[in-house]
Fold this protein.
Amino acid sequence: MRRHLLIAAALLITTSAHAHNGVKDPEVMARMMAMEKIGAAFKTLVSMAKQEVPLHQAKARMARDTIVTESGKINALFENPATDPKSEALPAIWDNWADFSAKSDDLTKAAKALDFKDRAALASTLSGVGLACKACHKDYRLKKD
Ligand code: HEC
């Protein structure tokens, strides 16, 4: 039960898709696009974990690989404090760079630990990924109502 709540909470993270419409700064756009790929892959895994769609090994593997690859780019994409009126990135990122980059590494680790041999394994390992998203967004991404 708790596991399902975690996944439901984690899914909320992905609800602001296309927040990057109208972004002019190319570096801000690039980091948002990476986040959106992560968000889409995460959503795919959540819908498999929630049995909204069948657990499909190859699709799950692709989604896992996307999160591993794109999260591996977070540090390079965010290192320069680029800004844009549409950006949701908080200045705290660059005041706490070591912590921010540790949190992006945590996401890569959690994604590598994803296990999708069955739905229960996926659900429990996906919670770790969802928590990694939340841990970073909580401190470093502008809150939306
Ligand atoms: C290390 C920090 C960090 C981690 C980990 C992280 N995010 Fe983000 N995310 C951000 C920041 C910062 C922004 C805002 C970027 C901006 O607007 O410039 C963001 C923005 C987003 C966006 C909006 C993209 C857009 O088009 O504006 C989505 C969707 C998203 N994250 C999903 C996720 C998901 C899903 C996870 C976990 C699987 C995750 N994020 C993990 C820091 C993180």
